[in-house]
Amino acid sequence: MRLDLADLRLFIAIVDTGSITGGAANAHLALASASERLRKMEAEIGVPLLHRHARGVTMTEAGEVLARHARPLLAQQQRLRQAMHAFACGQRGTLRLFANTSAMSAFLPGKLAAWMAAHPAVQIETEERTSADIVSCILAGVPPAHPLAEKEEVAFAAVLNEPLVALYQTSALQQHIEQHAAELGQALNVRVRMSHFAGLCEMVAHGAGGAILPRVIAERYRQRYSFAVIGLQDRWAQRRLCLCYQDDASLSPAMRRLLEWLRQP
């Protein structure tokens, strides 16, 4: 038996209105088309589904069974349509974002919190990754009494022999910094490693050493701790945060909405 959802929708419309004319109108079909479709349904099933009367139609026993099974199917189809519409309009889905340490700590939390509040059915998976193209505004932080504190900018090579407080080597940002030190044939002089920027800045303020961290992080924690902020002159340290994806066609509606939000100042 080959009945499609359009057949079932027409049949229920006829039953609910009590006439083939009314059912055809509700199903947005011409009367002749609706009558022909109903005839084919009855031929496919092999028994009449409706009793035709001068004042309309009533269901046969077979028609009652068909209606009883058709209604839940149509209701499920409507729920499915609504669920798929949520994906199509970007209101539902799972998005995966890779971000460097700076973006994860300073840019994404506030942006994502507001966006996710407006899109409660969208799940976002974030993962910290190393990316030389999106390392942003790396600066060196030192205690206020440090000899370098008088300078506005220094070369990265000038701080390699200084005692430093650093993130753990599992951090994408720390891996990036130490890679540039290795390219100069040196290793960082790390006294202690911390798991987060707050710990780094507090250690710097208490004279444990300098630290290399993003500008936005340094400026944020300088309001809480006392340390000088010095710019790194190296080109690799002057990076801008980028949004990277294959092409527009590869983006889901939800991802397009998120990218539009993240581009806002």
Automatic annotation (TrEMBL):
SUPFAM superfamilies noted in UniProt: Periplasmic binding protein-like II, Winged helix' DNA-binding domain
GO molecular function, one term: DNA-binding transcription factor activity
Keyword Transcription regulation assigned: yes
DNA-binding is among the record's keywords: yes
Gene Ontology cellular component list: cytosol
Pfam family, one: HTH_1
Leader peptide range in chain numbering: none
Top-rank lineage group of the source organism: Bacteria
InterPro entries, per database record: HTH-type_LysR_regulators, LysR_HTH_N, LysR_subst-bd, WH-like_DNA-bd_sf, WH_DNA-bd_sf
Keyword terms: DNA-binding, Transcription, Transcription regulation
Domain HTH lysR-type: 3-60
Family under the similarity heading: Belongs to the LysR transcriptional regulatory family.
Protein name: LysR family transcriptional regulator
Source organism (scientific name): Klebsiella pneumoniae
Underlying gene: cynR_6
